[in-house]
């Protein structure tokens, strides 16, 4: 399945997105609400018949302390699907070599684990490869250009059953990487070019995924 998540509005502490298919038909929307003094937000994803809520918070002080030492996920959100708590998403920092670390977005949903790996492709854009059980099940592509502070993501999944976890990964990526609380709307074009050099992250990117699926 191929679809897009397109930001249609931005405020000082919020954002709204439309989820559309290849023909531009609206499949749902996403509402992000934040507040002054924090990077964290409340998220509601409405997709066809499903409602998914992302709610920030560590389970307890012990988990927060573990996260500060890289032994638990950082910036965790509970995932509530149709009023039932079904999972959790956060960022896990994995040590690579002696000094470097990579950030992996980890989602647990209905006892399945999904990982998102970022790869900056230079002038070609940015890609997030989504895996479960060592198999790539989706890819999120993002252009280097952001017009009027509105972000757009293109998504392709190998099966429809992976749409919901990939949507959750996509919005968490926005919250973690692209959400800028308190920033006024900047009219015009902003270009960000990233070249990933880490061999492990590059190995997770399949340049032919879009064509093969």
Structure description:
This protein is of the alpha+beta class and 213 residues long. The longest helix has 16 residues, at 163-178. The termini are close together. The strands form two sheets. The chain has a twelve-stranded antiparallel beta barrel with strand order 1-2-3-4-5-6-7-8-9-10-11-13. A two-stranded antiparallel ribbon has the order 12-14. It has helices spanning 61-68, 163-178, 199-204, 209-212, and strands at residues 2-10, 14-20, 26-34, 41-47, 50-56, 74-81, 84-96, 100-109, 112-120, 126-132, 135-142, 145-147, 152-157, 189-191.
Oligomer: single chain
Number of helices: 4
Averaged pLDDT: 91
Biggest sheet statistics: 12 strands, antiparallel, barrel
Strand arrangement, major sheet: 1-2-3-4-5-6-7-8-9-10-11-13
Low-confidence stretches: none
How large, in whole angstroms, is the Cα Rg? Answer: 17 Å
Structural class: alpha+beta
Span of the ends, CA to CA: 9 Å
Global morphology: globular
Task: Please give the number of β-strands.
Answer: 14
Strand content: over 45%
Could you give the order of the helices and strands? EEEEEHEEEEEEEEHEHH
Helix content: 10-25%
């Amino acid at each position: 399945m191929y679809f897009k998540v397109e930001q249609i509005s931005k405020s000082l502490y919020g954002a709204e997105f439309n989820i559309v298919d290849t023909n531009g038909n609206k499949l749902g929307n996403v509402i992000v609400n934040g507040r002054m003094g924090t990077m964290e937000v409340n998220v509601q994803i409405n997709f066809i018949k499903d409602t998914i809520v992302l709610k920030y918070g560590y389970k307890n002080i012990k988990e927060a302390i573990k996260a500060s030492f890289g032994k638990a996920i950082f910036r965790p959100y509970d995932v509530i699907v149709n009023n039932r708590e079904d999972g959790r998403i956060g960022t896990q920092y994995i040590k690579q070599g002696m000094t470097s670390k990579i950030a992996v977005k980890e989602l647990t949903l209905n006892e399945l684990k999904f990982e998102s790996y970022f790869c900056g492709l230079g002038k070609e854009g940015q890609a997030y490869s989504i895996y479960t059980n060592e198999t790539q099940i989706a890819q999120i592509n993002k252009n280097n250009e952001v017009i009027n502070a509105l972000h757009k993501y293109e998504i392709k999944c190998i099966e429809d059953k992976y749409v919901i976890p990939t949507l959750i990964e996509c919005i968490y990526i926005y919250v973690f990487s692209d959400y800028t609380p308190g920033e006024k709307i900047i009219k015009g074009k902003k270009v960000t070019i990233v070249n990933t050099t880490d061999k492990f992250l590059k190995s997770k990117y399949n340049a032919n995924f879009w064509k093969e699926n």
